[in-house]
Amino acid sequence: MDEAYRKLCQADKDLAEGVEVSILLVDDEPSNLKLLERTLEPCGYFRLVSTSDPRTVFDLCLRHSFALIILDLNMPYLDGFQVMSRLRESRNVEGLPPILVVTAQHDQEHRVRALQEGAADYVTKPFQVDELRARVSNLVKVRLFQKRMQMLIQNLETGVRERTEELLRSRQMIRELAAHREKIREEERARIAREIHDEFGQYLTALRMDTAMLNIRYGAANPELKQHLVDMKQTIDTTIGVVRNLAAALRPGALDMGLVSAAEWLLAGFEERTGIAYRLHAPREDLGLDDERATAVFRILQEALTNITRYAQASVVNVAINLAGDALVMQVSDDGIGFDPALVRCRKTFGLLGIRERALMFGGESRIDSEPGAGTILCIQIPLQIQGH
Ligand SMILES: Nc1ncnc2c1ncn2[C@@H]1O[C@H](COP(=O)(O)OP(=O)(O)O)[C@@H](O)[C@H]1O
Ligand SMILES: [Mg+2]
After folding, report:
1. Range of the domain at 367
2. Is the bond preceding residue 126 a cis peptide, omega within 30 degrees?
3. I need a labelling partner for 3 at 20 to 30 A (CA). Which of 65, 169, 203, 220 fits?
4. What pTM does this model have?
5. Phi, psi of 5 (to 5 degrees)
């Protein structure tokens, strides 16, 4: 074997990384096939599959993965053009190996047509051995590069898919963990609120009654004591108020009467503190929300009102709570200064994020519509049915 050909073959071999490279030879004339085999065989590297019947090409292509097809044009049953067009129909472009036409047809017309029909190269018989070898080697190289590229892309896609799945899984886990902690936190708050309310309330009420009784017994005879007792009763009343507020801040008792009552209570306090008027549109009948959902929606409203108090400079807030299909929908809109949500998303803020996550916990969603100067609308939607829990 001459040195140049040995070098060519070595380069191809390196590129193939140990994978055997097969070439299909198609020519109706056995002596032509022999000549092609003798030309390409000496490197001992290509696996050559020969056929003198063009009709067997398609079946062979299904059984082998050829790096190249060397194809004659003039053949009985099917000519080279028909083989090419059938191959094109039967496979996608990437699956199709390049085709090198080796033919006795010297004329320009055949050459151009073959190239137009998808042949990668065209060599006329009798061919020059070195030229054919070089062309074969070039085509095989391109094919091997293409294969390697496909493999890389495939690996990359698999990798990306796996990472994405992993990411989604861990996100889901974080979400579930957050939901779990949120639930525990709300239960704890409710328990502490109840204890503060009941225990403190009981003792304070007892104290209040004692002062009233002392007043009845000794007040008339002792004006100084009477005044003290009046002051004491007032202090106790203030303390009862503080305890109630504290308990309500932890968990509003109104929530026990349903979301709408709790929203009413929250908005009344909001209006009193901020001077911002509110309108609440909500159905009179019970919404049938479970406590977890009612609490979540209540917390969302609370956060929205906190933001309006802090940033909106609004004069009116509209809150609409409704059932739409199998979901609860709440819309909170203000006529304040608005903001650019895209800018806020880049910052690390937890209010709006918390709203979004709370909605997601129940398989719902939240949307913020706002722009500077145009007020803000927050819309959340939470399915009533348990989904994916
Ligand atoms: N109703 C609103 N009106 C105007 N700006 C708002 C309103 N709600 C939110 N924002 C803007 O969005 C930002 C992010 O809000 P949020 O996520 O609750 O975080 P934080 O309140 O801690 O800043 C706020 O800093 C404010 O600029
Ligand atoms: Mg906030």
Report:
1. 255-389
2. yes
3. 65
4. 0.68
5. -70, -40
